[in-house]
Amino acid sequence: MLNKIQQIGANTLAIFSGLGRATMMLFGALFGRPRPIKAWPLYIKQLYVVGVQSLLIIVVSGLFIGMVLALQGYTVLAKFGAEQMLGPLVALSLLRELGPVVTALLFAGRAGSALTAEIGLMKATEQLSSMEMMAVDPLRRVVAPRFWAGVISMPLLALIFNAVGILGGHLVGVDWLGVDGGGYWSAMQANVDFQQDVLNGVIKSFVFAFIVTLIALHKGYDAIPTSEGISAATTQTVVTSSLAVLGFDFVLTAVMFGG
Amino acid sequence: MTTRKLELLVGFFVTLAIAALLLLALKVANAGVGGSDQTYHLQAKFSNIGGLKVRSPVKVGGVVVGRVASIKLDPENFQPVVMLEINSSYNNFPETSTLSILTSGLLGEQYIGLQPGFVDESVSILKDGDTIEDTKSAIVLEELIGQFLFNRGN
Question: Is B13 an 8 Å CB contact of chain A?
Fold first, then answer.
């Protein structure tokens, strides 16, 4: 009995010390002497790796999710003779929920796991310690560019996801199922509000970007420097950040659209 | 890969994202250029507004001329007061105009129909802050059914 309680205590302490180390890492990476001109190529490189290389999976899944939404929505709406509401259905589900959430989940799998593995391997092969030896701060040189690249590129990816998804819905709804094209756009314009729907979706994806990138970097930086440790850290990145995204999504939806 | 090629690809990525934001803003949400027109306000009291909501359209003969800006309850006589936001290009409605709350289709959402009234020398034009006196309330389906059953009973 006492051992169990001790176990709970140890787990709690581990969680909080992990949070503390993640925060320390973030502060170390973000607050220091800024040198934007010298570090510019590093940032560009990370934006390319994290953002541009995730573009293909985001565009393809956005297109298919928009098409599936239109197909599914049409079968239900057609029963009530409300096909002209297909546009708002597709646009609102994408802008408010699916765009930010699915982008964050795909991003965690596509870019987050790669970040963790890369930094974990850097630690295992003692590249990080060698940097410290040369008086180069690995937090500033390795972690900071990756963090900013993640936080900047995920909202952009979510915007592209939404736009492609709405076009995919148009493809299926208007070009294939024969919903009126003018009605698709005009009903959408009447029901979608720029601040309420588009901007809140962007805010959501900023929060998710922060969570996913921070978890990925922290798990990599904190990984046990063995091959087993890195594999465990990569798995934890995907699992923890997916769960965190889904949990925060509920909270954010309740705050933004619940009242 | 050279820095130039990386910068090009990142620039392409950011441009694509901005294009997506523009598509969402202009084509999907219809915000920005067209949405920030000049408006003026009119007031109206109803006895029952039914399912009217803020941002419901105000139509003249089916053309949207404005939207509902706010809905409040008058604290003295407990009547709903609806504030309308009318586009400034439609600024010549006479004060004899009437408002009625209508429903688009059988299950559609409710909107305010504005019926312009007659004009002669004694009738002035509605200005910002004026109140439209002649209003017709929303038809509540339950009351209608109740009346119908009551009449059948006689």
Answer: yes
